[in-house]
Design a protein that fits this description.
105 residues; elongated; 3 helices; 2 strands; two-stranded antiparallel sheet
């Protein structure tokens, strides 16, 4: 299978690292697939968070309307801290992984 340069359309050899015509670096197909997989993984993770966050937000909003912000806020903070500590110490995840979804490279 012949590959073509993304920039100029010149044909590339299978082992080319740069385009012979324009000099653009050639990105291997495996790297492109990894980037696509990573984007799909992030999208899936955000979907999971939204499934949790939206109902939690609605419940918090109703609780604040019923009991007032001053009564509900400490409970919300305690729940957040409990979730973070669970992820950090029970699941053994790094803080970066908990906040951003993936370990640093």
């Amino acid at each position: 299978m012949t590959n073509f340069c993304d920039k100029c359309g010149n044909g590339l050899t299978a082992d080319a690292k740069f385009c012979a015509s324009c000099g653009k670096p050639v990105v291997p197909a495996t790297q492109i697939q990894l980037e696509v997989d990573e984007k799909a993984e992030k999208k899936k993770a955000w979907g999971k968070w939204l499934v949790i966050f939206i109902p939690a937000f609605i419940v918090a909003k109703l609780a604040i309307a019923e009991y007032g912000f001053d009564a509900v806020f400490p409970i919300l903070i305690a729940i957040l801290i409990a979730i973070l500590l669970y992820q950090r110490y029970y699941k053994q995840r790094s803080w970066h992984s908990i906040l951003w979804g993936k370990e640093k490279k």
